[in-house]
UniProtKB/TrEMBL annotation:
Skewed-composition ranges (Basic and acidic residues): 212-223
Signal peptide bounds: none
Ranges of biased composition (kind: Low complexity): 224-233
Protein name: acetyl-CoA carboxytransferase
Amino acid sequence: MLAGVTPSPRSDPAPNRLRWPDYAGAQAVWWGVGPVAGVDCVVAVWEFDVYGGSFGEVDAAAFAAAAEHAAATRRPLLSFLRSGGTRLQEGVAGLVGLPRATLAAAGLDEAGVAHVAVVDHPTTGGVWVTIASRADLRCAVAGATVGFAGPRVVAAVTGVPPDADSHTAEAAWRAGLVDAVVEPGDMDAWLAAALVAATAVPAVDAAAPAAHRDDARASHADADAGSSDGRAATDIRAAGDSGAAREGSRAADGGLGWAQVLAARAAGRTGGGVALDAMAAHGVEMAGGDPAVRARLGLLAPAPGPAPGVPNGAGPDAPGRSGAQGVVGVAVAAEPGGAPGPAGYRLLARAARLAGKLGLPLILFVDTPGADPSPRAEAGGVAAAIGAAMEAVLRCPSPTVSVVVGEGGSGGALAAACADAVLMTPDSYLTALSPEGAAATLRIPAERTADLGGLRPTDLLRLGFADEVLPSTDPAAIVRGVAATLARLTALDQGVRLSTRRTKWSTALPGQL
């Protein structure tokens, strides 16, 4: 895979500051530039036959140089890791390479450049902490030893060897610490999918995302001053659209709230995971350790057929665009009835941050009656995780679109719904608390709480929470709706769009039933 990579010159060996016997200070990390899996990259490679790939002074300098070059040239950084951790023969002089690596990786975040890590056998200690675990996408080689402390260190420090299924690539994947476990022969295909998605056409200029955020925050007051309620300035609904919202309204307006809840819970309707797959069929999954939530970095599927309110060919994949549109998608929850826990909301927050970093749209599919209310989730910090995810979505500088495809209960759903644009399918609902939870609180039947809750798509459209009701629950209709909305959002000035988002979610809803 690295045959086309041109290495940069190596540094002189590190000084033997501790006068360690027979220590030569050789460099274990080298870096270079070239194509990997068809994508031009900056590559950093750990050589395990040099002091076990341990990370010392010159290795930190090499990684920092690679990250700086990636940021300057806007190439993704691809790290191939095999390391036992810090170079112990250098003591603290080697240990301080970790904050140097952390700052170098932070520079990639500031530049909006992707970092992909391949975690090989073994990857432990400070290299796992500061480089692998902070990468945007993390792929582990099947069977690799992965963890903060290696198994021998665990046994020496605690007196008890770890279980055989601990400290493995597979265990890390189950915990959501790596996004994939890949056999060596399949690595090229995974990297091709990951790197193509990570370097796809952004929705906004990602050359200086930090500056964009500052400019956008500075423009909030100016943009608000130009609109009486902060919404009129960038109404995402086309004034003369072809009736998609009105048709969807008629479809969803035929019954009371409880009938709407039953429709959202009916078997066979499109769920969040199905919608995610239709929207971004090509890409790589991002793991979070919670099967209730899925996230994917991928390519936006071409909208099948003309989109309401958008001329033919005007969508994100229209001819003349330089390459496919990259996108980050999240399904909360992935299956109907799913109740996400803390890990699921941490994945949502991570996905929102990645979308903002790369300048890619964030598309959110909401389909949950609420977050996991169990004692285990409570002790695991589900409340704080929901709050952090909501903040990450609200602060994402990229265009954000949320589609409520089924159930939407309480803050667990709202964390994935506070977007630039909120779309609803005819069989969806969103409410302050699930009907059963509201019934227990108010001491009235669940059916009654649903009927009084103003939870139908048409109710939410009138209140000003939703921006459009889609005409169908079919995945193709959802993709068309997302593509049309995204085309309108990406045409807006970023500062005005972010100001409008802030106003929408920091003021009272404008409508009433």
